[in-house]
Design brief:
It is a single chain. Strand 3 and strand 4 form a beta hairpin. The chain is an alpha/beta fold. The protein is built from six helices and six strands. Helix 1 packs across helix 6. It has two domains: 132 residues, Flavodoxin domain (Rossmann fold); 37 residues, no CATH class. The longest helix has 17 residues. The protein binds flavin mononucleotide.
Length: 174
Amino acid sequence: MKIAVIYATKTGTSRECAERLGNCLQRHEVSLFELGKDNIPSLSDFDTVVAGGAVRFGKADKRLRRFLKERKDELNTARAGYFVCCAFADLAEEYIKDTFGAELLGRAIFAANFGGELKTSKQKNIFAKLAVRAMINDIEENGDSDDESEARVMPGIVPEAIAGAAEKITKTKG
Ligand SMILES: Cc1cc2nc3c(=O)[nH]c(=O)nc-3n(C[C@H](O)[C@H](O)[C@H](O)COP(=O)(O)O)c2cc1C
């Protein structure tokens, strides 16, 4: 099967998730495309298309949102699956709905949170470093809270979510 994995990333988490997904699909012909860097070919060249990227300040990466808007007609006829990378797993469902919308999600073979990372060392500017530091502090301070949304744990990439997506890609065809 020819599979395109199209992602937007700022600090590499979404790229790593795309690569891990590719590794789970080694028996297939997988091509990775980075939005803002690579030209994205016609989606009809592929049997399955995967698109995703990270959430920052409650919104998916601008390049991903633009891609979804510009290539909506193609995505609407493609066999497609979607992912987000985010730090707050409790908000992932909301981010997924907001990013991809009911129409694309209604036809999707999967829509998943592949997880996120909070690493100050990976941030490219002081503003992002401070934001990440604040999020880490918040998690550390509220980790033992009774309030579910506040009882957050330090995020990371979720290999099971990536493996689950790979399984849906390979098993639901036909
Ligand atoms: C400035 C900034 C804002 C962020 N805002 C959110 C957010 O609103 N919600 C969330 O769940 N994660 C948030 N994150 C976490 C990112 O989704 C996470 O760092 C992700 O791994 C980044 O992926 P990328 O390297 O592919 O860009 C934020 C991260 C940064 C640096």
